[in-house]
Amino acid sequence: MCKTVGVRMRAWLLGLAARRDAGMVTSEYAVGVLAAVAFAAVLYKVVTSGQVGEELQSIVGRALNAPM
Fold first, then answer.
1. How confident is the model at residue 11 (pLDDT cuts 50, 70, 90)?
2. Would you call 48 helix, strand, or coil by DSSP?
3. Which of the residues 11, 26, 34, 44 has an alpha carbon 20 to 30 A from that of 65?
4. What are phi and psi of 66, to 5 degrees?
């Protein structure tokens, strides 16, 4: 009987440890998402700036007007 209680207690404690690790994984995903959003915001600002916009239009224009 005592052995069964010990096994159940160990399983319960391992279950708690697994749940704590699951929280860590979730927080890591949250930090990754925040980093991706920050990178997207910086990239958007760069792409919508004047000089980069002109260069992109120039590249697209040359591609559309290329002789076949």
1. confident
2. coil
3. 44
4. -70, 140
Q: How far is CA 68 from the centre of its chain?
A: 41
- What is each CA distance from 43 to 2, 26, 31, in whole angstroms? 62, 26, 18
Task: Look at the pTM and tell me if it is higher than 0.70.
Answer: no
Q: How many CB atoms lie within 10 A of CB 3?
A: 7
Confidence of residue 16 (pLDDT cuts 50, 70, 90): low
What would the two tokens of residue 25 be?
A: 């994984």
The predicted pLDDT at position 34 comes to 95
Handedness of CA 37, 41, 42, 46 (dihedral sign): positive
